[in-house]
Design goal:
alpha/beta; Rossmann fold; seven-stranded mixed beta sheet; 9 helices; 7 strands; binds S-adenosylmethionine
């Protein structure tokens, strides 16, 4: 198999494309130096949110709202996105992004705070999809928390699963890269998850939570 060239990669990232609202939000993200998911990554999130008609979604790492808009556009039209970020300024921009995208304010619950503190207060088994895109050193703890929050059939996604080519390079032994590798291995070994690492954007590790299948396998 021939791996995709840079040309094919760019083509795949941009085939679905973004509207003006998202292009402008991307400019704001660049200006404020807040990282944002690529258009190809956003299209994948919208696809996942639509695949299980997600009504209750959690996002760790609101940024300027780019991934949030993609999620909301795939979710059930009455669905609510709970999005957490410790950066109040980023969330103010995200609020504007959601408004400009025509999203009803009742569909977004923006919580300013530290991810683990906020997530620990959320309800068990209540969420259809969780996107983790915050501090990579918290990925392992957020895997545990997410397993508590997801309903059976819910989808978990970790952004930056390739961490700019570092995760696949064994010479890279920094703490963030190790944490991401650990999450990949834990999800792979956990029979409650059906997982896939998609080489889209900066790597999206996606897993469907199927605890009932693990029970069958163990029987
Ligand atoms: C990669 S950006 C998110 C981009 C966003 N998902 C998008 O694609 O538009 C990561 C965000 O996580 C936030 N963040 C990092 N560590 C955090 C933590 N411990 N608790 C809450 N937010 C955190 C940062 O402030 C930043 O806005």
């Amino acid at each position: 198999m021939i791996p995709p060239s840079a040309q094919s990669w760019t083509y795949a990232q941009n085939l679905i494309g973004e509207d003006q609202v998202l292009t402008q939000a991307r400019e704001a993200a660049e200006e404020k130096k807040i990282p944002a998911l690529s258009p190809g990554g956003g299209a994948f999130l919208r696809f996942l949110a639509s695949s299980n008609d997600a009504s209750n979604v959690v996002e760790v790492g609101t940024g300027v709202g780019i991934s949030g808009v993609w999620l909301l556009r795939g979710m059930n039209p009455a669905g609510v996105l709970t999005s957490i970020d410790q950066d109040a300024q980023a969330q103010r921009i995200a609020k504007e992004t959601f408004l400009k995208a025509g999203i009803e304010p009742t569909r977004t619950r923006l919580i300013t705070g530290k991810a683990l503190e906020v997530v620990s207060r959320l309800t068990d088994k209540a969420y259809d999809l969780i996107l983790v895109a915050g501090d990579k050193l918290e990925y392992e703890s957020l895997l545990e928390e997410s397993t508590r929050l997801l309903r059976p059939g819910g989808i978990l996604v970790f952004d930056n699963a390739l961490n700019q080519d570092r995760v696949s390079n064994p010479r890279q032994q920094d703490a963030e890269t190790i944490a991401i590798r650990n999450v990949g291995e834990k999800i792979r070994e956990d029979e409650r998850f059906i997982s896939v690492l998609v080489a889209n954007a900066d790597g999206l590790l996606a897993a469907i939570y199927r605890p009932e299948r693990a029970a069958t396998l163990g029987a």
